[in-house]
Amino acid sequence: MLEKAKATYKYGFGAIRCLMRLKFCAMAAFLLLLAAAVSAAPAAPEGLRAEIVSQGVMIAWDYGENGVEFNVRRGSSVGDANVIATVSEKFFTDSTGESDVRYVYLVTAFDETSESAALGHVSLVYPPKYDRPFTLKIVQPVKRTFYYGERVNFVVEVESEVFDKLEGLKAVLSHNEMGVVGNFALNEGTKQFTLSLTLPSEGEFKELSIDYKIYASALIGPDGFSETLPLNFVLSPQKEIDTMRLATNLLTVYGPFIVLLFIATTVAFVGWRWSLHRKGQSDSIRLDLLGVLKERTVWKQDFFRRRVSQQQYAEKERELQGRENALRAKLAGKKIAPSKKNLFEGYRKAEVEEIYRLFKSLSSQKSEMNKDSVRTWLLSRGKSERVAKKVTDLIFEGKGLD
User: Are 138 and 116 in contact (CB under 8 A)?
Assistant: First the structure.
């Protein structure tokens, strides 16, 4: 048994030693293969450089071997750069970047077995992109109808948010048949082109309409841009004044001012005339009032000197007082009440006294007589026709002697 155990231990230990030798051999073979692979990796590109071109950013590098390809990486930093293209040439143009963003570019070479390291990187700001950096707008002339041989000033404005970046900005005026007919000059310190041009004469150009085109071009860095602005005009064989159109334009522009001026002038004139009329009326009323006051004074003196009776003075005083009140009301701007008519206007003093006496004596007998009988009785007593009529009117028509 002991001999058998020793034999088993001997053969088992030998097997283990064999296995250990095989493991060391495998590891050695792996290390040899790895060293061979490392020694066969492509060399890294050298001389990496970048520049801005019209399409974006161009990356170029130097490499002496053939049969390899290159991975171009881009990112905001070296650590996050990702492959954006695989090329076989020694350059690449990046046209997919975002404007005004700083990028880092790396390039590595690779073949079927391995990829090289990146010896260095380049960094730059991606250039802005412009689809239409500027446009054109016609400023003058506003009208679209001209006359043969007329001198016209064309003014074109350049609308651009990057006007300061435009280089070599120029423009021409062109016609399909006549070709370039004029070169625009850029006004100093402005964004406008100006071109003075004499339109064709009737003998040179028979058509009634003429089509022009304005071509403008400029550069922004390496990129070139252009814009076209079509212009269409109508040519008239005679320079006639459109009176109706001129009048319409004048009325449209100046009509409201003319109406306002007319209204203001009318109001001022009416106010002036009304003021003069009011002042004239006031002066006339004051003169009339002064005359009434003077007449009242004269009648009062005549009454005190017994030149007129009390009845005559009372009637005249009542008349003059009414006139005075009416005149004072006018001066105060109040409505004037109609004055009572003088019943004895046109009668002599003696006739008034006689009418008054007869009225007093006969008015008590009104119920016993009629108008004709009273009138006949007065005429039979030698009274005049006008006295008889006045007495009967006072008695039977209810006028009375207030």
Answer: no
Task: State the Cα–Cα distance between residues 98 and 121, nearest whole angstrom.
Answer: 19
Contact between 61 and 45 (Cβ < 8 Å)? yes
322: buried, middle or exposed (CB in 10 Å: 19+, 13-18, 0-12)? middle
Looking only at the bridges linking them, the beta strands covering 223-236 and 145-147 are: parallel
pLDDT tens digit string along 215-251? 888 887 777 788 888 877 777 775 555 566 667 777 7
In-domain check, residue 130: no
- The CA distance from 233 to 210, in Å, is 5
For residue 68, the surrounding DSSP H or E stretch is none
Across-strand partners of 92? 59
Q: List the strands of the sheet with 69-75, edge to edge.
A: 82-87, 69-75, 102-110, 122-125
3-state secondary structure of 398: coil
Query: Which has more confidence, 323 or 25?
Result: 323
Domain that holds residue 280: 244-342
Q: Pull the structure tokens for residue 373.
A: 């009988």
Looking at the structure of the chain, the number of domains it has is: 5
Q: Is residue 285 part of a domain?
A: yes
Q: Given 188, 206, 236, which residue is the final one in a domain? A: 236
Task: Indicate the pairing of strand 69-75 with strand 102-110.
Answer: antiparallel
Q: Are residues 208 and 260 in the same domain?
A: no
